[in-house]
Automatic annotation (TrEMBL):
Record-linked InterPro entries: FAD/NAD-bd_sf (IPR036188), Flavin-dep_Halogenase_NPB (IPR050816), Flavin_halogenase (IPR006905), Trp_halogen (IPR033856)
Pfam families reported in the protein's UniProt record: Trp_halogenase
Protein's name according to its UniProt entry: Tryptophan halogenase family protein
Organism: Sphingomonas kaistensis
Length: 500
């Protein structure tokens, strides 16, 4: 099988790296990209699953961290998303400690109603360590009462793509430089037979992977897959990005701060800080959004801002004919929960799971698209929750997203939690009970009644349980080294950010 990847960036080179690692030696894999076409590069923050991807490729963590200017990430801090002045963390890992069948948040909700609880983050180890700027690789003894310390990374997306390019080319991937002008179709099936450059060159293939970004060169431009517009639920349609100087202290978490008509990200890397302002152009102008972003940088501005325009949503079909869309060409859900890189990763996983050994069947395409649809819809609901659960009254944008109709699937989930505190994971959706509970509780969504099992503890027992957890996690986090000091010993950046 001849596999042709159209487009580079994180999507193209993650795909090329994985295919070159897991297919037979000598597999025919070609990647086409043009230096004239820039990459979007918003995927600088990740979630813990990226470690599975890197580990599967056999990448040495220290080499990767040093090459990409990476720092470690324990979660995301949300500022002003509930009421102005409030903040909470969506931290990776466990929330508190379950007792028997019941997740911890049930006990916390009962204690909160009784006035016995501190904010939920006091009982989340990753949040306690993040706020203390502490990090280390933690290994627990079997049976330890202390939870693991899962983590992800902040990194330079351009340097990560370059790192994976070296990896893939060393394993036989052929890169062709040039700007594509069109495609040729197979007369019998309508599938793509070849892609064509303006100078007459052509590249034939059996399977084409579209990593061309928002424009969807093949999946939309040639095959007309269609697009489901979700901007009625996620109305932000612009992002302005700008780098600034490294911040001190170098914190091990991403920050998302609510602004007048959107939100601002801050992503700390070893050599600089990534910043951006995601906003809705119906409620503020690009000039106003840029001014607000620049006025709220925590360090010296290092370059001119650049603006990205997008429509949230997904392709109606991500696999059409012999073309699979990966990354932004398959759809876009804003980077509020750092899932852009993850969606590339899961797309690559699906390719490997369903890679045809011969002619591509409808069964393979249908299953790929079914799994893609499920993932995107569940992720959409989680992002919409952040907007819908705000209490920023009197601001037109926030009033609109708080009162807008929401997907039925999300409405059912919120109603269930408000009734009984229940959070039930739907299949293999990305975000589980800890994520949903931290966002809902962090934005003041509370159940009306406690679970009856949680009521079996007396008030004294409940207070003792929470107090012991808080103390244990504070002591454990206090043993960890400073995040920046750990990075300096483990994998300080090479080349000071210069691209190879």
């Amino acid at each position: 099988m001849r596999i042709v990847i159209v487009g580079g960036g994180s999507a193209g080179w993650m795909t090329a790296a994985a295919l070159s690692r897991f297919l037979m030696p000598g597999a025919d894999i070609t990647l086409i990209e043009s230096d004239e076409i820039g990459t979007v590069g918003v995927g600088e923050a990740t979630i813990p699953a990226i470690r599975i991807f890197n580990d599967a490729l056999g990448i040495d963590e220290a080499e990767f961290v040093a090459a990409t200017g990476a720092s470690f990430k324990l979660g995301i801090e949300f500022r002003d998303w509930g009421r102005e002045g409030e903040r909470y963390h969506h931290a990776f890992g466990l929330v508190g400690r379950s007792l028997g069948l019941l997740p911890f948040h049930h006990y916390w909700c009962r204690a909160d109603a009784l006035g016995l609880a501190k904010p939920l983050g006091h009982y989340v180890l990753n949040k306690v360590a993040a706020e203390a700027n502490r990090f280390a690789h933690v290994t627990r003894a079997e049976g330890s009462a202390l939870p693991p310390l899962p983590y992800a990374y902040h990194f330079d997306a351009g340097l990560y793509a370059a790192f994976l390019r070296r990896f893939a080319e060393a394993r036989g991937v052929i890169r062709i430089e040039g700007k594509l002008q069109g495609a040729e179709r197979q007369p019998e099936t309508g599938d793509i037979a070849a892609v064509r450059f303006g100078d007459g060159r052509r590249v034939e293939g059996d399977l084409f992977i579209d990593c061309s970004g928002f424009r969807g060169f093949l999946i939309e431009g040639e095959l007309g897959a269609g697009y489901d517009d979700w901007s009625h639920w996620l109305p932000c349609d612009r992002a302005i990005a700008v780098p600034s100087a490294r911040i001190e202290p170098l914190v091990p978490y991403t920050r998302a701060t609510a602004r007048t008509a959107g939100w601002q990200w801050r992503i700390p890397l070893q050599h600089r800080t990534g910043n951006g302002h995601v906003f809705c152009s119906a409620f503020t102008s690009e000039d106003e959004a840029a001014a607000l972003l620049l006025a709220n940088l925590d360090g010296e501005q290092l370059a001119e801002p650049r603006t990205l325009r997008f429509t949230t949503g997904r392709r109606r079909r991500a696999f059409v004919g012999n073309v699979i869309a990966i990354g932004l060409s398959s759809g876009f859900i804003e980077p509020l929960e750092s899932t852009s890189i993850h969606l590339i990763q899961t797309g690559v996983d699906r390719i490997l799971d369903l890679l045809p050994g011969g002619p591509i069947s409808d069964a393979v395409r249908d299953e790929y698209n079914r799994r893609f649809d499920f993932e995107m819809e569940r992720l959409r609901d989680f992002i919409v929750l952040h907007y819908h659960a705000n209490q920023r009254e009197g601001l037109p944008f926030w009033d609109r997203v708080r009162t807008m109709p929401i997907p039925d699937s999300l409405a059912r989930r919120i109603a269930l939690f408000e009734d009984s505190g229940a959070i039930l994971r739907d299949g293999d959706e990305l975000f589980d009970v800890p994520g949903w509970s931290q966002v809902m509780i962090g934005q003041n969504v509370r159940p009306r009644r406690a679970h009856p099992i949680a009521a079996q503890l007396s008030e004294a027992q409940l207070g003792q349980f929470l107090g012991s957890l808080e103390h244990a996690y504070a002591v454990d986090a206090g043993r960890l080294p400073d995040h920046a000091a750990f990075l300096g010993n483990f994998a300080p950046m090479i080349n000071n950010g210069a691209r190879p």
